[in-house]
Design brief:
Blueprint (H helix, E strand, L loop, with lengths): L11 E8 L8 H17 L1 E6 L6 H7 L10 E2 L7 H15 L19 E7 L4 H4 L8 H15 L9 E6 L1
Parallel strand pairs: 1-2, 1-4, 2-3, 4-5
Helix pairs in contact: 3-5
């Protein structure tokens, strides 16, 4: 995502991962794979992790987040997908603090991330367990709540070719 020809070397890369906090195939190798991937990603981006539900592995989420690996700063543990709306502003605030490069003089940011620009990748867990954690749902309302969270984050940023750039990836 960040190591392509479009990557801007003078802009901070920020990664926000939204997951239900459990590997789809619970095993030591799945956890080791997640940690290995996190180790690589943390070398190229500031990583924020959001683990939703009460069955998360908080130690794994903390490990996957960037320094200082603090709860409600680098990793978040809302107990339900409905609670994503309550942490959105906090995630945007911390992500925006990573972008320290001021925008060009001709660009006037109009959103909350005015102090800097970032290249933001949002990784969204697409596993079936997201829906399985939707108790009493006839459809997968959790995906709608994740989508609302992502759109809310984007709405708070000044997104353009010269300011913040965003990619959303379903994994």
């Amino acid at each position: 995502i960040f190591q392509t020809s479009a990557d801007r070397s003078d802009v901070t890369n920020v990664l926000v991962t939204i997951t239900d906090g459990q590997p789809t195939v619970p095993s030591n190798s799945a956890v080791d794979d997640a940690k290995s991937a996190a180790d690589v990603l943390k070398t190229i981006a500031t990583s924020f992790i959001i683990g939703v539900t009460d069955v998360i592995d908080e130690d794994l989420l903390q490990y996957m987040s960037s320094s200082p690996q603090l709860l409600n700063q680098n990793y978040f543990t809302p107990s339900s997908f409905e609670d994503l709306a309550f942490i959105r502003n906090q995630v945007v605030t911390y992500a925006c603090q990573e972008g320290v490069t001021p925008p060009p003089v001709t660009v006037k940011p109009t959103r909350d991330c005015e102090n800097g620009i970032i290249d933001l990748a949002i990784l969204v867990d697409g596993s079936g367990s997201i829906c399985n954690n939707c108790v009493g749902c006839s459809t997968c309302a959790n995906y709608d709540l994740v989508k609302d969270f992502v759109l809310g984050v984007i709405d708070q940023l000044d997104v353009s070719r010269d300011t913040t750039r965003i990619s959303v990836v379903l994994f």
